[in-house]
Amino acid sequence: MSRSAISAAAAIERSIYSIRGHRVMLDADLATLYGVTTSNLNKAVTRNRDRFPADFMFQISAADADALQTGAPGRGRGGRRKPARVFTEQGVAMLSTVLNGKRAIAVNIEIMRVFVRLRHLLATNADLARRLDSLEANYDKQFRVVFEAIRQLMTEPEPKTGTIGFKTP
């Protein structure tokens, strides 16, 4: 894998969020990857709305946006006018039928590879948890602290929900 492909994969991985139990990508992040404006990406989706059922794409709530800290004002007139759309893995795959061009195809292939890699990591993590359970059952209480520390390292960190900026007393 080339350096540019590794950096692209890393950028894609940073753009995948967990919302309402789904691994999703924001419309703005996808637009950046595809080299189009968020507005144009959403227009293409709106024109092909029947291709994007609720399990492929949905709009996030204000609470979801706050949890992701994506509600920061954008350039120009103060940010978004509409809630962000997020796309599941199937929705991203469907975008390839809506957005044409060599770049869209290349980006879509990389995104699919990252989603597959994440699924593999999650499956490996579940397998590791099963093995840890069996080891824990075989060893006595003196190793319990070690097993609990390993479990804490395996859990996903909680999303930051604090406010940005200075607080006045």
User: SS-based structural class?
Assistant: alpha+beta
- Distance N to C terminus: 51 Å
How much is the radius of gyration in Å?
20 Å
**Biggest β-sheet, characterized?**
4 strands, antiparallel
Q: What share of residues is helical?
A: 55-70%
| Secondary-structure element pattern, one letter each | HEEHHEHEHHH
**Principal-axes shape call:** globular
Number of strands: 4
Strand order across the biggest sheet? 1-2-4-3
Please indicate the percent range of residues in DSSP E strands (runs of 2 or more).
5-15%
Integer average pLDDT: 76
* Uncertain residue segments: 71-77
Quickly count the domains.
1
Alpha plus pi helix count: 7
Structural account:
- The chain is of the alpha+beta class and 169 residues long.
- The radius of gyration is 20 Å and the shape is globular.
Which features characterize this protein?
single chain, 169 residues, alpha+beta, four-stranded antiparallel sheet, 56% helix
Topology:
Elements (H helix, E strand, L loop, with lengths): L2 H12 L1 E4 L2 E5 H8 L3 H10 L9 E3 L2 H7 L16 E4 H10 L3 H37 L5 H11 L15
Antiparallel strand pairs: 1-2, 2-4, 3-4
Helix pairs in contact: 1-6, 2-3, 5-6, 6-7
Brief sketch in words of this structure:
Helices cover 56% and strands 9% of the residues. It has helices at 3-14, 27-34, 38-47, 62-68, 89-98, 102-138, 144-154; strands at 16-19, 22-26, 57-59, 85-88.
